[in-house]
Amino acid sequence: MSFVVPPEAYARFMGRYAEPLAEVFAAFAGVGAGDKVLDVGCGPGALTAHLLSAGAEVAAIDPSPPFVDAIRVRFPGVDVRRGTAEELPYDSDAFDAALAQLVVHFMTDPVGGVRQMARVTRGGGVVAACVWDGPTGALAPFWDAVHAIAPDVEDEALLSGAHKGHLTELFETAGLRDVEEDSLAVDVVHPAFEEWWEPYTFGVGPAGDYVRRLDDKGRARLESAARERLGDGPFTVTAAAWAARGTV
């Protein structure tokens, strides 16, 4: 599974969903102007951009060198570092809030990562995370098409946090208090099938890896199955995510 990809590829693949999600996720977390916030697993900066526009003071971290470089160019004033959630290189109590958008399900140790987020957040501060819902998230139409051809293929639905209650369990195990979980959703209009499909060929994440492993005949068959389900466009993908927040 790869996220060491050009930021432009990731933006076309996931940014189209992550950018509108950032607004509703930040509102759910209750952070905004004047807050010192850590964006964990920042990617090319969808959440960072929204937090900055809302007046927050933002630091960011991601394990992907291209994403870190992109943030440094895009936001020169942001303290952005390369690293993982499980080993955050910050002092304890350094932030008012730590947020992770579409990251927990890819953490090697989700409880450890959330625990680290809590460590770097001051007492009374907020830790929040969101993850696409397995059956109804942004990638659900793609995996539905895959399963129409290969029902036994494992998708992203079993990843950490991808079902109701999983994030709450992780947060409580990590020691957070007053944990609340809710469902968030964004609607993204795709003007044409090709605009939706092409980013899946860029090799981003589990879906991109799956497409890359197919031969030409297999890719054509999957593309045809997806087009049959979605149509030529325009069409709307309603992407649902689970979100949890807790108090340190």
Describe the structure.
The structure is a single chain. With 248 residues, the protein is α/β, with parallel strands linked by helices. It has a domain of 168 residues: 3-Layer(aba) Sandwich (Rossmann fold). The chain has nine helices and seven strands; from the N terminus they run αβαβαββαβααβαααβ. α2 links the parallel β1 and β2. α1 packs across α2 and α5 packs across α9. The chain is globular. The protein starts with 6 loop residues before the first helix and ends with a strand. The relative contact order is 0.17. The model has no long low-confidence stretch (mean pLDDT 94). Belongs to the methyltransferase superfamily.
Classify the secondary structure makeup into a structural class. Answer: alpha/beta
Helix count equals 9
Query: Distance between the terminal alpha carbons, to the nearest Å?
Result: 32 Å
**What is the oligomer described by this structure?**
single chain
Low-pLDDT regions? none
* Mean pLDDT over all positions: 94
Report the biggest beta sheet as strand number plus sense, adding barrel if it closes. Answer: 7 strands, mixed
CATH fold field value of the domain at 7-134 and 156-187 and 240-247: Rossmann fold
CATH architecture call of the domain at 7-134 and 156-187 and 240-247: 3-Layer(aba) Sandwich
Strand/helix succession: HEHEHEEHEHHEHHHE
Helical residues, percent: 25-40%
> What top-tier CATH class of the domain at 7-134 and 156-187 and 240-247 fits best?
Alpha Beta
User: Outline, from the CA principal axes?
Assistant: globular
Per DSSP E runs of 2 or more residues, the count of β-strands stands at 7
InterPro entries: Diverse_substrate_MTase, Methyltransf_11, SAM-dependent_MTases_sf
GO molecular function, one term: S-adenosylmethionine-dependent methyltransferase activity
Protein name: Malonyl-[acyl-carrier protein] O-methyltransferase
Keywords: Methyltransferase, Transferase
